[in-house]
Design goal:
The complex is a heterodimer. Helices cover 67% and strands 0% of the residues of chain A. Chain A contains 15 helices and no strands. Classes of the chains: A mainly alpha, B alpha/beta.
Chain lengths: 444, 267
């Protein structure tokens, strides 16, 4: 039988055998990834040498030759390494800005509450997520606002002419009641005209308006706290306030804009598209400038907006436009069949979006969302151009202080700023990667 | 070309099963339905009356409009002319009517369209809880009942991605049944399945037919058509070309186009 046989029957099955020794373990990994060919071996050695050459001076500057202790510039004047003594001396300013020293405990409480609220929220195993979210979104912002500003906001109600009623909290309350009644009445009228009452919309509106009323009442109370103007805020406090407000406001707004841009209703679609394209087409610096310099020109006399508040609104709207496009990308990745499956079961538009489409779209968008959160976090440094001193701005300002002026002071400050920003951004990035893996588990 | 009025025969044929078909209770009625995709005329003068308890199989070459036809019945597609009445409710632009109809009409898709981020059980309870406002517990009981019926109760806590195609399609059927629909639409339910899995899905569908469910199936499973259908409809070019009881349809097709089609698919 010389010709290749057409038939074959295996008599004995082959048992599994161990893989060749040099293809597994550390040796195997190195052989495969670092020294797979002579050229790659040379490259590996060269790159290792390059890394050592780069990193050594950095370590020498930041650690070996660094000055750790000292009371003023004399400690660092001749130093060839980083002046950590300066960072240590200035740390309170970096964190609180010009917030009065006697009142800084209020900022500390806010930071503490943030950590207490956020950490259990971020750990999936911790129960009571609903209560936790309620605290973070409904309670924490009010407490933070009252603690940071001092509360005791004077509400006067500008819409009712003074000839009818003197400016007072009572006038504001009357005005608020009228507006609330108009909104609820308008909803009822709309439901009647459209002949399609949205179930519970009246209750929802009442709850929201009631909540706003409670919030307004609380912030107008006098808790005996010394008022601290936002002009005195600074450092990490401003960075975190701008970044967190921007993120929290931008996400829901971005979702609505993304849904609006994909809507079948031409007016909604057009409005969303215009909003997104206008805000995305303008640099953030321009937005901040407009908010700080131009906006007051358009407002009627006597109406003043806090500068920080204006920056917050500008950042939030700017960020919402980017967020909308990121989320729209996720929405586009959801196959038509998912919509059809949901519709065929009789789910309404909002039910379908909330239960089926958005959970999947947001999951796909996580890398993009976190990407824009990270860039927002770094973009907060731009508020310096409208005279707000964020973390980086505070460091920059302090580097010019004659008490600490030395050749290495500025450099040290920037290295410190870079490290802190990197720590925040890297943490966000890692957490996002963790979430992605966690959410992906069920799908395989 | 057959006269469109022929399409409204009130099930005069002897059904292939012993199940009775209501002679007075209309489940779905389509009168002179026309639909265009832009300029393209995809459905032309469709007249079809489906009685409660009837089992209809629609077949035809791809692009003949058969999927579009059944997707019009729960308004996944909008028709531009004519009248569609489902369970006594006419489909118009009235969103409330559309929602009402969709609640009563179950649909099974070629690609299952399960929700990949929800477990099998959650897939089944989602609509009863959100649409019928059923308490979660009750919805889960019902879901387990139907999952047992399609013979996969043990998969309840898995995700769709962990199941085979045949199992996924059976879940999709259970998911529809959880809404207790009065009519079931099947849009090529076995076309995306491996040959070995087709039978398990068809078995479930046969079982459903035996219980008297009103079914409209777009399928090329001619064995299934022979076994359970009261009527087979052949479509081409957006029109109903021929319809008849399965025995006559397969043994004695009248129209040339039908003969050609059958000669291609029956070996």
């Amino acid at each position: 039988m010389n010709a290749p046989a057409n038939s074959f029957v295996r008599n004995a099955l082959i048992e599994p055998q161990a893989a060749p020794r040099n293809t597994v373990g550390i040796t195997g990994w190195m052989r495969q990834n670092l020294f797979s060919s002579p050229l790659n071996g040379v490259m590996t050695v060269l790159i290792l040498a390059f890394i050592v050459w780069m990193v050594t001076p950095f370590i020498r500057f930041t650690l070996v030759n660094a000055v750790w202790e000292g009371a003023d510039r004399s400690a660092c004047a001749t130093a060839t390494g980083a002046c950590w003594a300066y960072v240590k001396a200035y740390l309170p300013q970096f964190v609180y800005g010009r917030y009065p020293a006697a009142e800084r405990w209020r900022v500390d409480i806010v930071f503490l509450l943030l950590v207490v609220g956020l950490v259990p929220m971020l750990i999936p195993r911790v129960p009571y997520k609903r209560l936790n979210a309620l605290f973070l979104i409904g309670v924490f912002p009010i407490v933070a606002f009252i603690l940071l500003t001092g509360g005791h906001v004077r509400l006067a109600g500008n819409l009712i002419p003074s000839s009818l009623m003197a400016p007072s909290p009572l006038r504001f309350a009357v005005q608020y009641a009228i507006i609330a009644a108009l909104i609820i009445g308008g909803l009822a009228l709309f439901a009647k005209l459209a002949e399609r009452p949205v179930k519970g919309s009246g209750t929802t509106a009442s709850i929201i308006l009631g909540y706003i009323a409670v919030v307004l009442f609380l912030v107008s109370l006098d808790f005996g706290l010394v008022p601290v103007e936002t002009a005195n805020w600074g450092g990490l406090l401003v960075t975190l306030v701008v970044a967190i407000t921007g993120m929290v406001a931008a996400l829901p707004l971005g979702i609505l804009l993304a849904l609006g841009r994909r809507s079948n209703m031409p007016v909604v679609k057009l409005a969303s598209t215009i909003f997104i394209e206008v805000w995305r087409g303008v640099p953030l610096i321009t937005v901040l400038f407009m908010a700080s310099v131009m906006l007051p020109l358009f407002l009627p006399d006597g109406v003043t907006f806090d500068k920080l508040l204006r920056a917050l609104i500008g950042v939030a709207l700017f960020q919402a436009a980017y967020m909308a496009e990121t989320i729209r990308g996720g929405l586009q990745a959801i196959p038509r069949g998912q919509y059809e499956g949901a519709m065929a079961l009789g789910l309404g538009y909002w039910q379908m979006m909330r239960q089926i489409v958005l959970p999947q779209a947001l999951r796909i968008s996580i890398p993009g969302i976190v990407g824009s959160f990270i860039s927002l976090f770094k973009d907060t440094t731009l508020v310096i151009i409208i005279g707000l001193y964020d973390f980086l701005g505070q460091i920059q300002a302090s580097a010019n202080d004659a008490k600490w002026a030395s050749p290495v002071t500025g450099l040290t400050g920037y290295i410190f700023a870079a490290m802190v920003f990197w720590a925040f951004c890297f943490a966000m990035s890692r957490y996002a990667a963790f979430t992605e893996r966690r959410l992906d588990r069920g799908r395989r | 070309m057959s006269d469109p009025s022929v399409a409204t025969i009130e099930a005069p044929h002897v059904p292939p099963t012993s199940l009775t078909v209501s002679s007075t209770d209309v489940a779905v009625q389509m009168v002179d339905v026309n639909k265009w995709y832009g300029e393209f005329h995809v459905l032309r003068d469709i007249n079809l009356t489906v009685m409660r308890g009837e089992r209809i199989v629609i077949c035809g070459p791809s692009g003949s409009g058969k999927s579009t036809l059944i997707r019009c019945i729960n308004r996944l597609e909008e028709h531009q002319k004519g009248k569609i009445v489902v369970d006594g409710k006419e489909l118009t632009n009235d969103l409330r009517k559309i929602d009402e109809v969709r609640r009563e009409v179950g649909m099974v898709f070629q690609h299952f369209n399960l929700f990949p981020h929800l477990t099998i059980l959650e897939n089944c309870t989602l609509a009863p809880i959100n649409v019928r406002k059923m308490p979660k517990r009750e919805a889960e009981e019902i879901a387990m009942h139907y999952l047992s019926r399609v013979k996969i109760p043990e998969q309840a806590n898995k995700y769709p991605g962990q199941l085979s195609g045949g199992q996924q399609q059976r879940v999709a059927i259970a998911r529809s049944l959880c809404m207790n629909p009065r009519v079931m639409l099947f849009d090529e339910p076995t076309s995306a399945l491996d040959p070995e899995m087709i039978k398990e899905v068809l078995d479930v569908m046969v079982g459903l037919a035996m219980e008297g469910m009103t079914m409209i199936c777009v399928t090329h499973e001619m064995g299934f058509a022979r076994q359970v259908a009261n009527r087979v409809i052949f479509m081409d070019g957006g029109q109903i070309i021929e319809q008849n009881d399965p025995v006559s349809f397969f043994t004695n097709p009248q129209h040339e186009r039908t003969k050609l089609f059958l000669s291609q698919i029956l070996h």
